Amino acid sequence: xxxxxxxxxxxxxxxAFLDLWRVLxxxxxxxxADAGSSGADYQVLVTLEEAxxxxxxxxxxxxxxxxxxxxxxxxxxxxxxxxxxRTSVEVDARGTLVALTxxxxxxxxxxxxxxxxxxxxxxxxxxxxxxxxxxxxxAQQIVDSLTRAE
Amino acid sequence: xxxxxxxxxxxxxxxAFLDLWRVLxxxxxxxxADAGSSGADYQVLVTLEEAxxxxxxxxxxxxxxxxxxxxxxxxxxxxxxxxxxRTSVEVDARGTLVALTxxxxxxxxxxxxxxxxxxxxxxxxxxxxxxxxxxxxxAQQIVDSLTRAE
DNA sequence: CTCGTGTGACTGACCTGTCAACAAGGAGGA
DNA sequence: TCCTCCTTGTTGACAGGTCAGTCACACGAG
Lengths: 150, 150
Prior knowledge:
Oligomer: homodimer
Low-confidence stretches of chain A: none
Strand content of chain A: 5-15%
Strand order of the largest sheet of chain A: 1-2
C-alpha cells in the first residue's frame, strides 16, 4: 500500500503525465520561439494586454503566480528588448508602472494566433467533452489541495 | 470555430491544466529541495540506480530525453557535488562511464521515500480508476501526436 | 589505407528562475 | 513623534537549460 516505490500501475499514470508535461513544454516553447517570443515574454504581454492599462509588477506577479524577483528580472530583460517600459511616477513612491510599448503589442499580435492554434491542434483537439470534464475537475482538485496546503 | 482567442470553455480546460502544471512543478521541486536534492539530480540518480551499473552519458540522455549538452552540464555539476564520478576507461575511446558515489546513493535513499509519498499524496490520491484511465490515454495520445510530428 | 560521415562528449555564451539580502517607502500604535 | 512591522521592488550569486561550435573517435565505402 505504501511501499518505497511506485507500483507499475502508478508508474504508468505518473510517467504518462510526466511525458505529457515534457512534450507540451518543449513544443509550446518552440512554437513561441518560432513566432519571435518566449513563454515568459508571452505571459507578461498577455497579462498587460488583457488588463488594458499599465500594471505594477506586484499585480503581474499576482496574476501569474510569480514571485517579485522573477517579475523584476523578467521586466528588466523585456525592457532592454524594448517590449515594455517602466516609469516610476506613482502615488506610492515604491511603485513602478509597467506599460506595453508598440513593439510589445506587435510582438504579441504576431505570436498570439499561432499560439492559440497550437494549443488547439496539440492539446484541445485530443479531448472530447468527457475527457475535458475529467481533466478540469481533477486539475482543480489537485491545485486546490496543493494551494491550501501551503 | 477558429478565432484568434480561446473561448471560455477552451480557456477553462487549458487554464486548469496550466495551473496544475505550475503547482505540481513547484511543489515537487520544493519537496525534493527539502530532501536535499533537486529534480534534475533526482532523475539522474534514479536512472543510475535502476540500471544497477555505470552508464554512459548517451544512455542517460536517451532515458531522460535530454540532449547531450544538458547531460554533460548536469553531470559536471553533480560530479563537483560528489554525487557521481566520471571515468574515461572504456572500450570506445570517446566514451565516459558515469557511476554513483556512496554519497549519491545516500542522497537518493534520503529523497526517494518522500518523493514517492509526495506523488501519491498530491497526485495519485486525487485520481480514481476511471480518471486514471482517461488521463493516461489522453496523455499518450498527445505525446504520440507531438512526437511523431517532430 | 584513407576519406567522408556520423557519433559521443565537452565547452562557452547566453537566457531563465530561485533564494537571500537589501533599500526604501508606507501604516499603525504607544 | 518614534518605533516597529509590512510591502514593494531591485540586485547578486548561483543552479538549470539551450544553442552553436569543437574535438576526437568509429566505421564503412571505395
